[in-house]
Amino acid sequence: MALRTLDSLGSLAGKRVIVRVDFNVPLKEGVITDDGRIRAALPTLTHLLNAGARVIACSHLGRPDGAPDPKYSLAPVAQRLSELLGAPVAFAADTVGAEAQAAASGLNDGEIAVIENLRFNPGETAKDETERRAFAQQLAALGDALVSDGFGVVHRKQASVYDLAEILPSAAGFLIEKEVDVLDRLTENPARPYAVVLGGSKVSDKLGVIEHLLPRADKILVGGGMLFTFLAAQGHAVGKSLLEADQLDTVRGYIAQAAERGVELLLPTDVVVAAAFAADAAHEVAAVDAIEVTPFGADGIGLDIGPDTAARFADAIRSSTTVFWNGPMGVFEMSAFAAGTRAVAEALTEVDGLSVVGGGDSAAAVRQLGFADDQFGHISTGGGASLEFLEGKKLPGLEILGWEN
Length: 405
Prior knowledge:
The protein has 405 residues and is α/β, with parallel strands linked by helices. It has helices at 36-50, 75-85, 98-105, 129-140, 159-167, 174-187, 207-213, 227-233, 248-261, 307-318, 339-349, 360-368, 383-390, 396-399; strands at 16-20, 27-28, 31-32, 54-58, 89-92, 112-115, 145-148, 170-172, 194-198, 219-222, 264-266, 270-274, 283-287, 301-305, 322-326, 354-357, 378-379. It is elongated and about 70 Å long. 51% of the residues are buried.
């Protein structure tokens, strides 16, 4: 079945439309440090406002454990949204209480309100279906229809994502529609050559993706903290670098499977080894078979791919037509260990085809390193949701909108 899209809801002029967005943005002392997720919601919100809908935007932010917590308030988000829209945005300081009800009922056509963090109510994330459903019913009373556009939560069976979509007429917004289209292209008949670039800290976080994409990819590039489990599986000493010893046999299986299928598995040939996990730590480049031969000996810790590896990875990416990247190549937050991630990001901007940055830390990295969103084919807003989609898992927030993968 196909995803239900906005057209399926008919005219929304004068209707109260609840839009489940993903405004889970990073905050530092109440200041938004990356507004990418807010900007990603703008096409859907602007379309609805221009169509004369009365929009009630709702989202979670952080993990406030089912109770109000000022540091997770959506008030700064409502302010930033107002700036981006160039229009007033009403803010209700509760989720389904008197303020939310007043905000929803007080809207005129083409106006928007944001209600407070959904996770301030325990019903949003409740495992108990009755409790979750009861909260969804309270949310449903605020509107006439639901537009689901928070891709970052479609892998969660939560009240505003799943139950609310059962209660009200519901459809996917433009962001979810785009995410599904792009990720589907990565799994069904991708244009070749197809390269998958995986980084981040743990192999265990990527097992499902490797399993599902290994038969589909032409090249798999491995960096980040997870690379050391691959190196250890090949018999290399890795000092105090991140290592998942319980995954060594699994990784050896992937190496063998790649060889059998003719998939090019690119592993680092050199890494940046540091004396400690610190921005100002002494560090030097070492070949992967000499990590413990540096001045730091067995105490050395690998924090980035090396320059030779970065160059090889960049060449492999540039020569591909479809590229999916999830996970930084090193500790990009520290400038001394950001070069590998920068090289990969730069190469993705030069792909003649579809380049996809798979959300989460990768999205944060490209923005922190100064790249613009439009330099890439697509930057996913859902790290975990993107990975689960690419693992071939059923995502409840998409299934309830008619999608079958």
